[in-house]
Amino acid sequence: MKDRSFAEKDKAPEVKRTRVVVGLDIGTTKIACFVGRKNEHNKIEIIAMGKSESLGVMRGVVSNIERTVQSINAAVEATQNAVDGNLKIKNVHVGIAGQHIKSKQHRGIYTRRTVNGEISQADIDSFVDDMYQLVMNPGEEIITVIPQEYIVDGEPEIKDPIGMGGVRLEANFHIISGQVTNVTNITRCIERSGLSVKDIILEPIASAEAVLSEEEKEAGVVLVDIGGGTTDVAIFHDGLIRHTAVIPFGGNVITQDIKEGCRIMQRQAEMLKVKFGSALASESKENEVVCIPGLKGREPKEITLRNLASIIQARMEEIIELVNLEIRNSGYEKKLIGGIVVTGGGSQLKHLTQLIEYLTGMDARIGYPTEHLANTNDLDKLASPMFATGIGLVLKGFETVESALPWEQPAETANSAQGQAIEKQQEKTKGHSNIERRGKFFNRILDPLKTFFNDEDDQDI
Q1: Could you give phi then psi for residue 29, rounded to 5 degrees?
Q2: How much of the chain exceeds pLDDT 70, in percent?
Q3: Once rounded to an integer, what is the mean pLDDT over residues 205-222?
Q4: Which of 277, 310, 343 delimits the end of a domain?
Q5: Domain carrying residue 301
C-alpha cells in the first residue's frame, strides 16, 4: 500500500490534493528554502523550511557556481528532511537581486483589433507582451513588466479595464531589467542542484508581499529590505509599485566596519553586531564594555558598546541617506502616508527605527513576514525579518501558479489527455504566465513547467 502524502494525512482521502509551492532565497549570507501550501481555509501555511550558509554569492550576485550549488543543496536537503510525507522538492520560485537590477517607467500604447466587444484578459496579455519586446542596453533583458494605471480611449486612472469597452489602450508600466549573465548564473546553479526554475521574482517585490498590508500599499509606503550584501527598496502608492532600487550595501559592510574599527576577527565582529549592536550610539552607556578573547595567548581586547554603536550608526546613516535619495527620486516623497517598513536580517539592529525616523522624518516599523500566513504552531520560528524574502517568494509563487494552472486537479487526470485538455483550456481563459511573457530571453533559460500531483509514490513539488 502506498504511503499517503501530508495532504492526505490532514484531510479525508476523497479531498483533492492541494498545490504546494517552494520558494528559494539565494542571499549573500544565507540560502533559505521554504515549502508552503494552502489549507482548507485558503490560507497559506509554511510546512517546511531549511537554510544554509551562502558561500558563493556576493552582493546578491553569484560569484562562485560550485560553492553556490553546495549551499543550495544543503538548504534544500534540510528542507526536504523537514517535509512530512513523500513529497519531493523539484520546482522552485527563486528570488533575484543585486546591483545590476534596474527599473524604469514606460508609457505604452495598444490598439485593439476589434472595435466592438469588451476589453479581455487576452488584450491585456498582448499589451504586456509588447512591453517585453522593448529594446534594452546590450547585455540587459527585461525580467518583469508590472502594469500600473490604464487609460482607455482617453479616460485616465483605470486600474482594471477588463470588461470595459474601448479601442485605444494606454498604460504606465514599471519595467525591471537585469544582466543576462547574472540571471543565467542563478539558473545554472539551480539546475546543477537537480532543481527546475518555476519563476524568477525580484526580491524586494517578494519581501513586500510578505510584510506589507494592502492598506499600507494603498496609503503609500517604502519597503527597505536590509540584506547581507544589498539593501532593496520598493515604493508603493495607490496599491501599485512605483519605484524599485538596489543599494550595494548591507549588513556585511557593517560587519566589515566593526572588524576594521575594532581590529578583531570577522566572526567576532559578526557576533558583536548581532548580540550587542545598536544603530544609535546615544542609547549605549560609555561604561558598558565587551571583552573579546585574544589570539593565541594574547591579551583580551575590551570594546565599549558606545564605540561599537558609533561604528554601526555611521554606516547605517549612509544606507538610510541612500534610501532617502531613492525616495526623492521616485517623486512620491510627499505622498507616503504609510512611512517606512524595514525588514531583512539587518533590520534586527536595536534602535534602528528610531534612527530612520530621525533621519527621514517618516514613521518606521519593523516588518515581520507572518502578515499573511495562517496561524500554526511554528509561526514564531518564521517571525524573523530575515525570512521575509523566502516567505514572500512562496506567496508570489501561489499567484503565479493560480494565474497559469488549475488550482486543484484530480490526480487521475493529471497526466491524461483529459488533463492536457483542461490545461490548454486554462491557458486560453487566463492568458499567459509570467514565464511565457518573457519571450526569447526566458525561453532560453527557463523551461515551461507544468507539474501536477499524481498517484506515484514520490510527488514532485
Answers
A1: -105, -25
A2: 83
A3: 94
A4: 310
A5: 251-310
Distances, alpha carbon 298 to alpha carbons 265, 269, 292, 302, 398, in Å:
14, 18, 11, 13, 55
Residues 6+ apart with CB under 8 A from 328: none
Residue 397's identity, in one-letter code, is G
My answer on whether 415 and 301 are in the same domain is no
Which of 71-75, 97-101, 158-162, 415-419 shows the lowest mean pLDDT across its residues? Answer: 415-419
Strands, E assignment, 83-122: 87-88, 91-96, 102-111
Q: Are residues 18 and 95 in the same domain?
A: yes
Same domain assignment for residues 92 and 193: yes
- Please choose, from the candidates 171, 141, 143, 145, the residue with its C-alpha nearest in 3D space to the C-alpha of residue 157: 171
Q: Which residues contact 384 (CB under 8 A, 6 or more apart)?
A: 345, 348, 368, 369
For residues 380 and 275, the model is more confident at 275
Give yes or no: residues 27 and 87 share one domain: yes
Query: Same domain for 456 and 395?
Result: yes
- pLDDT tens digits, 428-454: 434 444 444 544 444 444 444 334 333
d(Cα 384, Cα 64) in Å, to the nearest integer?
28
The pTM assigned to this predicted structure is: 0.81
